[in-house]
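Consider the following assembly input.
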Amino acid sequence: MESGKSDFQKGLKDGLTVGVSYIPLAMAVGIVASKLGMLFGTWEIMSALLYSGSSQSAVLNLISNGATSILIYLLTFSIITFRHVLFSLSMSQKMDPKMSVLSRMLFASFNTDEIYAIAMQQPGKLKAPYLFGISVFPYAGWMLGVTLGFIFNQLLPDSVKSAFGITLYAVFLALIVPPMKKSLSVVFGVVCSAAISWILECIPAVKNTLPPGTPMIICTIVTCTLGALFLPVKEDDEKLEDEIKENNM
Amino acid sequence: MDNKFLITIILLMFLISYLMKMVPMVFCKGKIKNKFLNSFLYYIPFAVITSMTIPEVFHSTSSIISASCGVALAVILGLMGQSLLVIALSSTVIVFIVENFVLRLF
């Protein structure tokens, strides 16, 4: 009992920095949603259920491009979320084997890239109280941020809103640039994807006929196939995990 | 954008993401051995994030010049190993400064 309580507190503490860092990020996403004229209730439901900066941004991006095909939304979303299959796979190996199925099912909905990165650095097996503890502040911070961002959009002057237009992309750059220093594979992936994406954007036929979101899917499949064929990554998961950790610290 | 359509896709996306997070955590114990699949999965986040950023980032603010300054700063700070939050905020601030104090001069 004692150890369960201190595990929970340790988790809360580890989650606090993540929670605080989510607030401005979530605000940036909230501002975008508000700009698109989404209803406040719909936005809160979306944030509560999807709870992910990258997926929510991708969905907002599709909405602003006027995508109307359910298939495109689900396909884009699945591609972006697919990394969680990998996270969950590697995390399952580190979880306390005694952790119940119910606890695992509950924790799964609260896992994020950052929680994954921090939890994987813990010594020993991951226990349920720790995992629930670390989930509290990030979720609270995210919901607070998306709500504040949505409300602030109505109050902020246009000059500030314009500057916030780049925030999300700066976050994306912050995720891909630092690992480029460490790995040739990452450099290849980023350069290849950027080149294909830019070329697709420049072909009017692609831009005008393909549904919004499709170029991203093409770009991802081509880049990953080329990468896996010509520059396969070594099998040790540790390298990947280390990069994700460094990414998010 | 029709609200009912939005709610529908949100619920479907929630279901997809939940299954993706939950199923491997509950059922899988073994590691993936296939080299091609492993490499393919490894490249996904980088490919997706890059294609969402390029070239849209250059049209994300009211001027391509301010956006380019933001990109340049983000890349430099990224190479210097700064944290996500520092990069995101600095980039936003430089766009604001360029748009309101530099571009106004011309």
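The helical segments of chain B are 3-27, 35-53, 64-79, 84-102. Ask yourself how this observation constrains the way the partners meet.
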